[in-house]
Amino acid sequence: MMVFLRAGTFIFLFALTIMATNAQEFELHGFIQANFSLRITETGENRTPNGSPIPDFLLGDERVQLEITRSGKDASLLGKIDFFYDAIDKQAYFDIREAYIDLKLGKFDIRAGRQIITWGVGDLVFINDVFPKNWVALLSGQPLQYLKFGSDALNINFFPGFASLQMIVIPFYQADELPRGERLLSFDPLPDITNRKEVQPEMKFKNTQIAARLYRYLGKFDVSLYFYRGFWGSPPGMVINPDEGLLTFTHPRLIVYGGSLQGAFLNGVLSLGVGYYDSREDPGGTNPGIENSQTRFLAGYQRALSENLTFGCQYYGERIQNYSSYERNLPPTFPKRKELRHTVSLRVTRFFKYQTLRASFFMFYSPNEKDYYMNPEIRYELGNGLWIAVGGILLGGEKDHTLFGQFEKNDNIYFVLRYAF
Amino acid sequence: MRNKKHIILITGTFFFLLLMSGWIKAREKLSGEEIVKKSRQIFYSAGKDFKAKVLMKLISKNGKRRIRELTMLRLNIGESGEQKYYMYFHRPADVRQMTFMVWKYPEKNDDRWLYVPSIKLVRRIAANDKNSGFVGSDFTYEDVSGREVAEDTYTLKGEEALNGKPTYVVESTPRDEKSTYYSRKVSWIDKETFLPLKEEYYDKRGNLSKRFTADKIESIQGKATIMQRSMANVQNGHRTLVIFEKVNYNVGLKEDIFSERYLRNAPREWIQ
User: Fold this and answer.
1) Candidate from A104, A269, A356 with C-beta closest to B126
2) Would you call A160 an interface residue with chain B, using a CB distance cutoff of 8 Å?
3) What is the DSSP string of B140-186?
4) Looking at the domain A2-420, which fold is it?
5) How far is CA A188 from CA A94, A191, A330, A405, in A?
6) Which helix (H) or strand (E) holds B263?
């Protein structure tokens, strides 16, 4: 039944769009990109899950992105496809990054199809943005846009005047891309259990994810309230079956309530965000395989320091709700997390030579976990549409199991050359 | 009795003429500040709203060119000087569909938002860098949206003919030295249209640093409009040429265009 309903809706929207975009022409854009990343740390005796040595290259990526758009007054289409060759796997792939139809119907904007959804006010910190992310891309030196990937969703925006409402329905679950030991080395609490699988939520109507945002300008601030009902993306849940020697990654149910605020403050921009992660399948916090409920919050501030120099700083905290039951139920081999894990981050960006040259530095540092993530980068615009970037990703910490500390063998230098057309 | 009436009449006429002559004189002799005020109004706020396709050519000393092409929408909010700007980039390809929105207020920092299409991100950006180059050009943010008249003091240096046009020559000096990069600025303002035809900026050491010229002026819907302008850095040889196309005033822009809705989903009818 649902399938017919979905197909019917799609055909209806498609027909409407064809009618509305009749008079317009298609446009073709995109880019060609080479993106390499070289590990600069020793990996020693480590092996990938299938037993081969860890490659020294994290990325050997050559790709073409094609973007086809057709824009009309009331309806538009966009299709964005990446064709890429992975020189490490020696495999060619394609990826439908986005494919959607936009409709403007009076006070409604509707976007249907595969789409990237981003909201929230954090800088590389996502509290209420629970949409799919590729953390492997971020850690191995791909351009920022590859941190996000598409959701197959219906996105309805309503603008009655006093506030705006965004409602997103995602029938098909997309898990985050997480390091699984193939190229990026990370901490593994159960190294002896080598048999692993991932179970995604079933394609059932009851597993439809729902997200909503209510927002408006309030005084000089942009104020938003958020809601999400779906599943834990990262970290996922774990089910251990010692008899079979099997570790299963799962996506337990999650509800997130939150809010954010962003506006001008002391010659700069102030951002505040908060979210409550309600872990529905582990309300008491007794199951060590499922994340405990949490409160997450951030405060950020950015401003220009002088001509072509901007500075941003941010505080982010993550507090475990039922910490005592977390402590009581933690298996002995698992490292214990802090009740409150927090990070401070710093971003400095400076432009030179009429903004053709950009030098930037971003850093996360956790004062209580004593770990860090650093990303210095230099980017140079060679001409119209052609740019080159060289950067580094440096990770580490005092302990080998903390969020950034576990990735310390993945320090890398990356290189991007892109021609956009 | 009759004499008294006469005296009142004569005295009244005398005062009336005296006042009138003063007013006529004032009309003839505008102060530097009044000239600049009128000029800014015409240069930055003509019409209720404004729409243009803007082509910027950023040209380095050795002739290397970079292009920026955008659609600019501007709406005046009331008479106070508050304005809203919407800028949608068409070129170069790597910033295509990027959109920049500004709510400009008199006497306080702007609110600015940026939309990054590749990750569908809308975020506020700091607005206290008025002297940074706008999209890597020789024009600063302040050059694009206008400096507050009250931030400078003005001296009318005289009148001069520039390319056959009579102009007022006005010198501006910042009240707060730290508020800008120039120590003084000399403007040649057309006596007829009140548009600046040429401006020369002097750096903190007193050397000529930048030169603005209005290269082509046309009348659009009865409003004198600079259709081509340039800003040259005379010290390093870099210059920016700006060409306006498809200029229209009073097109009927509504305030709701300048919102997150249209940042994320550009209003096609306005940006073509």
Assistant:
1) A269
2) no
3) BHHHHH---GGGEEEEEEEEEEETTEEEEEEEEEESSGGGSS-SEEE
4) Porin (2.40.160)
5) 30, 6, 15, 12
6) helix B260-264
Amino acid at B259: S
A90, two tokens: 């020696």
Q: Among candidates A258, A269, A255, A256, which has minimal Cα distance to A215? A: A258
Dihedral through CA B136, CA B140, CA B144, CA B147, nearest 10? Answer: 170
CA pair distance B143, A403, nearest whole angstrom? 46
Q: Looking at chain B, which residue has its C-alpha nearest residue A419? A: B94
Q: How close is the nearest chain A Cα to the Cα of B28, in Å?
A: 40
Sequence-ordered list of residues with C-beta below 8 angstroms from that of B27, at least 6 positions apart, any chain? none
In this prediction, residues A360-364 reach a mean pLDDT of 98
Is B217 inside any structural domain? yes
With respect to residue B262, please indicate whether it lies within any of the assigned structural domains. Answer: yes
Which of A144, A264, A271 is nearest residue B127 as measured by Cβ atoms? A264
Share of chain A above pLDDT 90, in %: 79
* Shortest CA gap B109–chain A (Å): 7
Mean pLDDT of A157-178: 95
**Is residue A19 pLDDT above 80, yes or no?**
no
Q: What's the pTM? A: 0.90
Is A383's CB within 8 Å of B58's CB?
A: no
Residue A226 φ then ψ, to 5°: -125, 155
Higher pLDDT, residue A20 or A304: A304
| Total of domains in chain B | 1
Residue A2 clears pLDDT 50, i.e. is over it: no
Q: Which residues of B touch A (CB under 8 A)?
A: 58, 60, 64, 66-67, 91-94, 96, 109, 111, 118-121, 123-129, 131-133, 135-138, 181, 238, 256, 260-261, 265, 268-269
Contact B136 A121 (CB under 8 A): no
Q: Which pLDDT value is given to residue B15? A: 66
The answer to whether residue B119 sits within a structural domain is yes
- Beta-sheet pairing, A371-383 with A386-397: antiparallel
Note whether B128 contacts A303, CB cutoff 8 Å: yes
What Å distances lie between residue A185 and A140, A178, A263, A319, A405, CA to CA?
A: 11, 11, 39, 26, 11
Alpha-carbon distance A358 to nearest alpha carbon in chain B (angstroms): 11
- Residue A262 and residue B124 in contact, taking contact as beta carbons nearer than 8 Å: yes
Asked if residue B91 is part of any domain, the answer here is yes
Put simply, the answer to whether B111 touches A385 (Cβ < 8 Å) is no
Give per-residue pLDDT as tens, B97-144: 999 999 999 888 899 999 999 999 999 998 888 889 999 999 999 998
CA distance A17 to B66: 36
Tokens 């980068």, residue located: A377
Ordered by start, the domain boundaries in chain A are 2-420
Mean local confidence (pLDDT), A205-213 = 97
| Residue range(s) defining the domain that contains residue B226 | 30-271
Which has the higher per-residue pLDDT, A219 or B8?
A219
The CA angle B179-B133-A347, to the nearest 5 degrees, is 90
Q: What is the pLDDT of residues B148-161, one digit of tens each?
A: 999 999 999 999 99
Query: B6 versus B73: which is more confidently predicted?
Result: B73
